[in-house]
């Protein structure tokens, strides 16, 4: 969108137009109309599932593809067919640190930006998966969640087989060591949140949830604050939600209120513990389990479990999509994200998976 600036203004937002503009650079409204474009829909399931670049975040529409219509996104960042602005890499990205570990993080349908974040690492039979969900009512939570996830992962990788503080020993020793490292990872994430908004008043500072899973051979250890979750979904056996939500719904369920009623309550998603300058306690709760057979470790934000919460239902959902996508965890994570978006995508969506056993 180059050319000489004219006196014309956009009918949609009032922004200045250039002489050769076909679409408003600010809002994407076609020149000559007063009708704004519809909201950008979620990426097609096939696009998500096919994204398999290792390590690097990916644009939401794939190579040059428009999220709204599938058309070509021009060099100026707008679709040549419908004028929709291109999605940023922060809106949607996939990570595949190993063939058995992968994840997808997506803006969803209704939110203007992606405040979810994830960070993954894997080596041999070790993997660390971190998911942070930024609190949308706090400014800068998209930056804070990404910083927190990265800082937490660094602490956990230091305990992996190639780290400087490698965790070794029998299961009880490793459980204790990983639990301590998960607690340190949460503190590192909290420090990163504070550093992302220096000088911000606590009541106006960013904040996010934290959940992390460590796979260390046959041991699975998790830590969390907030309502992002870890599920263990064995091929044979009983699926489990390993975390317990730090939220209004979690407190209701702890009092015996049935899950469906608790999660439908007005305060269901009001979190009671989080990372951020206004947090009173950033000590992660932890738990560990022995993985004695094949299955999936799923680490996710509430953008996924909003639509499928009980562990048996989640196991069924993962199994059904795995039958279509095959065993690749990144493709499966993409299918789960696309499924959540198809249900309404009212929140950011993150799914990270490890195939173990």
Total number of strands: 13
Low-confidence stretches: 1-7, 25-64
Oligomer: single chain
Sheet/helix structural class:
alpha+beta
- The count of domains is 1
Structural overview:
There is one protein chain. With 357 residues, this protein is an alpha+beta fold. The chain has a single domain (92-356), classed as PPM-type phosphatase domain (Phosphatase 2c, domain 1), CATH 3.60.40.10. Helices cover 27% and strands 22% of the residues. It contains eight helices and 13 strands. It has helices at residues 45-50, 141-158, 171-196, 248-254, 259-263, 302-305, 311-325, 329-342; strands at residues 5-9, 16-18, 92-98, 101-106, 116-123, 126-133, 210-216, 219-225, 229-234, 240-241, 285-290, 295-300, 349-356. Strands 3-4-13-12-9-10 form a six-stranded antiparallel β-sheet. The chain has a five-stranded antiparallel β-sheet with strand order 5-6-7-8-11. A hairpin with a 2-residue loop joins β3 (92-98) and β4. α2 (141-158) runs antiparallel to α3 (171-196) and α7 crosses α8. Mean pLDDT is 83; it is low at 1-7 and 25-64.
């Amino acid at each position: 969108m180059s050319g000489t600036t004219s006196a014309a203004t956009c009918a949609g937002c009032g922004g200045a137009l250039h002489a050769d503009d076909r679409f408003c650079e600010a809002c994407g409204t076609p020149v000559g109309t007063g009708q704004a474009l519809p909201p950008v829909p979620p990426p097609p399931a096939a696009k998500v599932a096919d994204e398999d670049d290792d390590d690097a975040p990916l644009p939401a529409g794939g190579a040059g593809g428009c999220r709204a219509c599938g058309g070509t996104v021009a060099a100026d960042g707008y679709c040549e067919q419908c004028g929709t602005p291109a999605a940023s890499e922060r809106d949607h990205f996939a990570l595949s640190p190993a063939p058995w570990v992968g994840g997808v993080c997506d803006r969803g349908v209704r939110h203007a930006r992606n405040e979810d974040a994830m960070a993954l690492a894997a080596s041999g039979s070790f993997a660390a998966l971190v998911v942070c969900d930024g609190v949308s009512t706090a400014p800068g939570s998209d930056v804070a969640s990404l910083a927190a996830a990265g800082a937490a992962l660094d602490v956990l990788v230091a305990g992996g087989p190639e780290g400087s503080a490698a965790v070794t020993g029998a299961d009880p020793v490793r459980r204790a060591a990983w639990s301590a490292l998960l607690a340190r990872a949460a503190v590192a994430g909290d420090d990163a949140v504070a550093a992302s908004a220096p000088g911000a008043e606590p009541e106006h500072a960013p904040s996010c949830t934290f959940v992390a899973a460590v796979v260390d051979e046959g041991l699975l250890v998790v830590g969390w604050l907030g309502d992002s979750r870890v599920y263990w979904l064995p091929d044979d056996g009983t699926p489990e939600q390993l975390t317990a939500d730090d939220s209004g719904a979690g407190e209701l369920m702890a009092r015996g209120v049935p899950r469906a009623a608790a999660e439908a309550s007005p305060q269901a998603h009001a979190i009671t513990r989080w990372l951020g300058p206004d947090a009173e306690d950033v000590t992660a709760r932890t738990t560990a389990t022995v993985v004695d057979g094949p299955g999936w470790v799923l680490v996710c934000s509430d953008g996924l479990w909003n639509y499928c919460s009980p562990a048996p239902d989640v196991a069924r959902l993962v199994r059904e999509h795995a039958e279509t996508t095959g065993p690749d965890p990144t493709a499966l994570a993409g299918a789960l994200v696309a499924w959540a978006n198809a249900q309404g995508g009212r929140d950011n969506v993150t799914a990270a998976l490890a195939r173990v056993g």
